[in-house]
Amino acid sequence: MRYGAFRIAVVYLVISLLWITFSDHILFFFQHRLSADQILTISSGKGYFFVIVTALLLFAIIRSDDRKLKQSEQQYRSMYESNPNPMWIYEPSKLRIISVNDAAIAAYGYSKNEFLKKTILEIRPPEDAEKVIASAARLENSINNSGIWRHLKKDGTIIYVSITSHKISFNGQSHVMVLARDMTETILFEKKLENINKDLQEEKRKLSETQLISRIGGWDFFPGEQKLVWSDEIYEIAGILKEDFRKPFDLYLEHIFPEDRAMMINALNDLIANGKLLDVTHRITGIDGSTRYIRQLAKIDSGSPETLKITGSLQDITELKMLKEERDRYQLSFESTLNSMSDAFFALNRELIIIRTNEAFRILTGRDSNDIIGRSIFDLFSKEQNVFYPVYQKALEDRVICEKEDYSLVLNKWIKLAAYPTDEGVAVYFTDISEQRSKDARLKEAVERYELVAQATRDVVYDMNMLQDHLIYNTSLTHLINVLPENIKYNLEWWRGLIHPDDLADVVRGQELIIREGRTNWECEYRLNCGNGIYKYIIDQGYFVYDEQKRAIRLIGAVRDIDALKRSVHENRQLADMITRVNNMIIVTDPYRRVRWVNKAFEDMTGYNLGEIGGKVPAGFLSGPESSEDMLTALRVKQELLEVFSLDVIIYTKERVPLWISAEFTPSYDESKKFQGYVTVCQNITFRKEKEAETKRQHDLLRKIAWMSSHEIRRPVATILGLVDLMNQAEDEAERNEILPLLNRCATEMDQMVHEINNEIKNVEELH
C-alpha cells in the first residue's frame, strides 16, 4: 500500500489517543454546565463521530491504494502480455508452464492451451533435458542469464534463443519467469562465418602445402631499398635459415653459384631498366651443401623509380633437372640395348617417317643410318609389297599392340612382327622366323597324326611334366568336358579340381602308392565334373616315368568315358523300384537335391528333358509366382532330415503353365546305406484342385442366394404388408391414392431382387 500499514496504524493510534484525551478534557470542563444525560449523549456522540470519520478516512485510503495496486498490476500484466519477446512462467518443482504471453504463442506455433499442457523440457530437444534440469536447479533469486539454448517449435524447427529468468511470486507461490530472445539468425550467421573462416584457413593451408609440394615460393623486391621479402616456402626451398641476421638479398646472392651470379644480376638489372620479363635458371648451394637448380620468374608490379616493386616467384626444379639427366642416360642406355638386340627395330612417327633404328635393322636392310632416318617407311618397303602396313596403321590409330606373322616379299623371309604404340607414333620389332616356321610345319604334321589317332579312340590322352606341374591334353578333352578351350588350365591342380570330392582322396592315394613302390602302371575309376555340375564316371590309366634318381618326373596316360556303363547298372537298379509307377512323374535327385534322372512321364507333363535340367535343383525351374517360400523352406528341412513325406504343391511347366501335383518324397540309399538322394513320385491333381475350387465357388453363390432370399426379399415384403394394412384403415380415397405409389415402388424393388436371385441361380447353373 502507498502509505504503509505500520504508518497508518501509528497515525490512527496517535489521533485516537489525542481525540479521547482532549475530547474528555473538554467534556469534563463543561460538566458543571451540563446535565448527566447531556454529558452521556455528548460522550456517545463524540465516539460515534470519531468512529464514522476514521472509518471513512480508512475506507478512502484503502480504496485509493487498492486502485493504484490494481493499476500497477495491470501495467505489469500488460508489460508481460504485450512484450514482443516470448515470455512464460513455470513451476520450478514440476517444470510445468502455467502462463505464456502472446509473443511466445506466435513464435513457437503452439496454441495457449497446448503451451499450458507442456513443461519446459518439451520445448527443447530431448538430448538437452539433463542440462535444462541442472540449469533450473542452479537459479538464484536475482536475474539469471542462462545463455544460448536450443528450442523446438511446433513444426519441429530448432531455434536458438537467449534465456533470461528470475524467480517471482505468482498466485502466492514461488515461480520462475523466463524471457527468450530469438538468436537463431545471429547464431547461424556466426556459424556460417566460422565455417567460412575454417574454409579460408584450410584453403590457405592447402595452398601452402601445394607450394611446398610443387617447390614454389613467392617474393617481392624493392630495388630502391635493396629489400627482398620472401614467403615462408622460400626458406625451406632454398635451404636458408630464417634466423640468419643478414639481408635476404645479400644472403641469396651469396648462395648462388659464382658462375651463375652475374647472369642473375644482369637479368634483374635488365628488368629494372627495360621492363623485360625475368626468366632465369641458376644453381644455388643449400644449407646442407647440396646443389639445387632454381628457376626465377619476375616482373615489375608497380611504383615509380623511387618506390619500384618487383614481384616474382621461385621454383626448385632440381628434380626436373635430375630427371632430364636420367632421361639422357636412359636414352643412351636404350640406344645401346636396341643395338645389342638380335631382333630388328625401327620407330615411326605419326606420318610413318622413320625416326629411330637399331643395328640389326640396318644390317637386315643393308642401309646406313643416315640413309634411313627421316625417310618414309614406304621408301624402304613399297606399300604394294608391304604386307605389314595394316599392322603399323592399326597400332598407330587404335593405340593397341598388334602382332603378325607373314612372308615378306621384300626380304624374302618369314617375318614375325610386333607393333607397339608410343607417344611419338609406333615402335616396331621384327625377327626372321623362316627356320622356326619350317620346324613348326614338321611339328604340326606330327601333331595332326597324333590327333587323328586320338580321335579314333575318343580317349583323352595327356602328358604331365611332374617337375614343372604342366599338363598337355589332346583335343578329345573338349568332347569329354563341356569347357571352352580358352578356359582349360594346364596344371594338376585344375585337373584334380574336376574330380568329385568323394573320389579325390582315393585318386591321390593310389598315385602316391604307385610312386612310393616305384611301379609304372596306374589305373583308377573316378567321377569327373564334365560341366554344369554333371559328373561322369571315367577310367584313368597312366604310366609313370622315373629319372636316374628314381624320382617320378612324368606321367603319360589316357582317360576313357565309362559313365554310360556305370550309370546303366545304377539305373537298372532304380528302374526296378519304379516300374510300378511309370504312369506318374518321377524325379531322382542326388544328395545335393540336384536332378539326376527323370522319367518320360515327367518330360511329357512339364516339357523339360533331362539334358536341360540335369544337375539343377527342381525348385529353381519348377517354381513360379504362386509358389510358397514357406512351403519350399519346409520341404528343404524335411529333406535334410531324410524324412519320408508327401505334400500337395503347385509347379510350373516349361511353358509356365501351373500344375497341382501330389508329391511323395522317399530317400534313396546305396548298398552301403549311404544316402544317394530322393526319389519323388508325383501325381497330377490339377483336375481335383479345379473341382474343389469350382465347388467352393458354387457354395459361395448358393450361400449368397440363400441370404438374399432370407434377408433382402423380406424388407419389401414387410413394407408391402404394412402399406396394405394402411390402405385397409384409410378413411377416404385420397389417402389410398397416396399409398398406391409407395406400393408400386416396393413392388419394383421386390421385382429387382427376384431378378438378382435369378441371375445368381443362372451363375450356379453355368458352373454345373
TrEMBL record:
Keywords: Kinase, Membrane, Phosphoprotein, Transferase, Transmembrane, Transmembrane helix
Protein name (record): histidine kinase
Top class in the EC scheme: transferase
Species this protein is from: Mucilaginibacter pineti
Membrane is among the record's keywords: yes
Keyword S-adenosyl-L-methionine: no
Domain PAS: 72-146, 330-384, 571-636
Record's catalysed reaction(s): ATP + protein L-histidine = ADP + protein N-phospho-L-histidine
PANTHER family reported in the protein's UniProt record: PAC DOMAIN-CONTAINING PROTEIN, PHYTOCHROME-LIKE PROTEIN CPH1
InterPro entries: HisK_dim/P_dom, HisK_dim/P_sf, PAC, PAS, PAS-assoc_C, PAS-like_dom_sf, PAS_fold, PAS_fold_3
Gene3D superfamilies noted in UniProt: 1.10.287.130, PAS domain (3.30.450.20)
One of the GO BP terms on file: regulation of DNA-templated transcription
EC assignment: 2.7.13.3
GO MF: phosphorelay sensor kinase activity
Domain of life of the native organism: Bacteria
Transmembrane segments: 6-27, 39-62
Domain PAC: 278-329, 645-697
PROSITE patterns from the UniProt entry: PAC, PAS
